[in-house]
Amino acid sequence: MARSRAHDFEEKQRSILRSAAAVFAEVGMDKASMSQIAARADVSKALLYHYYPGRDALIFDILRTNLTELDEAIAAADRPDAPPRARLRALVHAVLEQYRDADDYHKVQLNGTQTLPQDQRDEIMAIERRIVRRFAVVIRQINPDLEAERPILMPVTMSIFGMMNWVYMWFKEGGPVSRADYADLATDILLGGIESLR
User: Fold this and answer.
1) pLDDT score for 71
2) Tag placement on the chain: N or C end, fewer CB within 10 Å?
3) Contact of 106 with 99, CB cutoff 8 Å
């Protein structure tokens, strides 16, 4: 008979993912051990293996969970009936708010995706493409010329991700610029550039 799930299965799983992301971020994908992750999560190794058979499964679930939640947050913030400039601003705010306390997840995403087997990489890339496509649609609405004479929609779209994805390298909560301030700043920089491109 299959063992039933504990009532706190999802909560424990979330704690394990947070702990694993922290260990991977601190010591690297190759050096992180299941023992270190179990100790950080304050669970036994046996319980850790009950949830995940190994490091690769943890890396994949960290990436899939983080990106799926990001995709859902962006979808919830998106208002297709809003003016494109306001729509873009809402999307940038949603991403940067979702990135709050997610620095370790970013490091795993930067360094862990290439360690996955191809089918798992494909699944991760499908979520990433869905997120990027939502931004590209809005950016095209702001300036349809971005695909007229030379195909620069994708480079422009990826530029906003460059501004958002690397914020964890320098942003400090409580500093002179709030997360919302930076969302507006990044949006304004992009909008100024988008509208001047021909």
Assistant:
1) 97
2) N
3) yes
Which token pair is 149? 């004479």
CB 102 within 8 A of CB 84: no
Q: If phi over 0 gives left and psi between -120 and 50 gives alpha, with beta otherwise, what is residue 43?
A: beta
Please give the radius of gyration of the chain, using alpha carbons only, rounded to the nearest integer: 19
Report the residue count for the chain: 198
DSSP 45-59: HHHHHHH-SSHHHHH
Whole-number Å distance between alpha carbons of 90 and 81:
12
pLDDT on residue 168:
83
Q: 183: exposed, middle or buried (C-beta count within 10 Å: 0-12, 13-18, 19+)?
A: buried
**Res 193: pLDDT:** 77
- Structure pTM? 0.87
CATH node for 55-196:
1.10.357.10
Record the tokens describing residue 140, joined without a space. 């095209």
DSSP summary character for residue 145: G
Mean pLDDT, the chain cut into blocks of 10 residues (198 residues total): 59 93 93 95 94 94 96 96 96 95 90 89 96 95 79 89 88 89 90 70
Residue type, 85: R
DSSP state of 2: P
Virtual torsion, Cα 140, 143, 147, 152, nearest 10 deg: -90
Q: What local confidence, expressed as pLDDT, does residue 17 receive?
A: 96
